[in-house]
Specification:
By secondary structure, the chain is mainly beta. About 10% of the residues lie in helices and about 40% in strands. It has 1 helix and 9 strands, in the order H-E-E-E-E-E-E-E-E-E. It has one helix at about 1-15, and strands at about 25-30, 45, 50-55, 60-65, 75-85, 85-95, 100-110, 120, 135. A hairpin with a 2-residue loop joins strand 2 (about 45) and strand 3 (about 50-55).
């Protein structure tokens, strides 16, 4: 299937698809932009919860850095972990590829965190609203 390989290579060049494989887990581009009310630093949701933050906005498109991004110096969200005993606050810091899970660090609070506890944005810091669902503790 040399023809298919040549065709794919031509399309890649035409579309300038020169990202590395790992970068596909970092950035998402959507066809909504400033004309649709999108602004930089907005939290981005899917049907299941928070997936990232808008990092660049154009008129008709936006670039989103996903929570699964390998960029450890950005895309941090202050979070609240709600358990039966109370709440803890921390920072959603990165994505663990081996566990396929988001990692929360710098936890504060006097509560025992258990599997199944709910993780949401806390709203602290002012960059994202409170109570956006992120997931549960595993």
């Amino acid at each position: 299937n040399k023809n298919y390989e040549r065709e794919i290579e031509a399309l890649k060049k035409e579309l300038e698809l020169n990202q590395t494989l790992t970068s596909w887990h970092d950035i998402l581009i959507v066809d909504k932009g400033s004309k649709d009310g999108i602004e930089a630093n907005m939290a981005v949701m899917s049907q299941k919860g928070l997936i990232g933050r808008v990092i660049e906005v154009n008129t008709a498109s936006s670039k989103i850095e996903l929570l699964s991004s390998s960029n450890e110096s950005s895309n941090h969200f202050p979070v609240r972990v709600s358990s039966a005993n109370g709440e803890a606050f921390g920072l959603l810091k990165n994505y663990d590829e081996k566990l396929h899970a988001l990692v929360v660090t710098q936890l504060t609070g006097d509560t025992d965190i258990k599997e199944g506890d709910v993780v949401q944005t806390s709203g602290l810091g002012g960059n994202s609203p409170a109570n956006l669902p992120i997931g549960t503790v595993i």
